Amino acid sequence: MAVSDWNEFVAQTDERMAAVRKGIPEVAKGFGSLAKAATAPGALDAKTKELIALAIGITARCDGCLAYHARAAARLGANRDEILEVIGVSVYMGGGPSMIYGAEALAAFDGLKDDD
């Protein structure tokens, strides 16, 4: 799916995820705890972890992952060159489909990097 407005996509996805969280609150709470623990700074800093998550989102072809992790990486100080290198590694690991989703990830980063 090609997203034309990443901010609108995030808003729509937030609404949909709110309905899921309401329907399965314990699962959502557990997932939230997992996400917080997995992205907390440790041997790797939080930005590096978000770049890894973005790469996985590219190779898994997950639009929501692209949006949330591109935005998080930008908020943690990632720059466009870092995103392009993440795309390069993703293409290496995921081939042609990752090239397409890499382009989507770059569009997401460009569309969301100034979003506060």
From TrEMBL:
Highest taxon above the source species: Bacteria
GO molecular function: peroxiredoxin activity
Keyword Hydrolase attached: no
Keyword Cell membrane attached: no
Domain Carboxymuconolactone decarboxylase-like residues, every copy: 25-107
SUPFAM superfamilies: AhpD-like (SSF69118)
Keywords, in A-Z order: Oxidoreductase, Peroxidase
NCBIfam families hit by this protein: ahpD_dom
Name of the protein this chain belongs to: Alkylhydroperoxidase AhpD family core domain protein
Originating organism: Roseibium aggregatum
Phylogenetic lineage: Bacteria, Pseudomonadati, Pseudomonadota, Alphaproteobacteria, Hyphomicrobiales
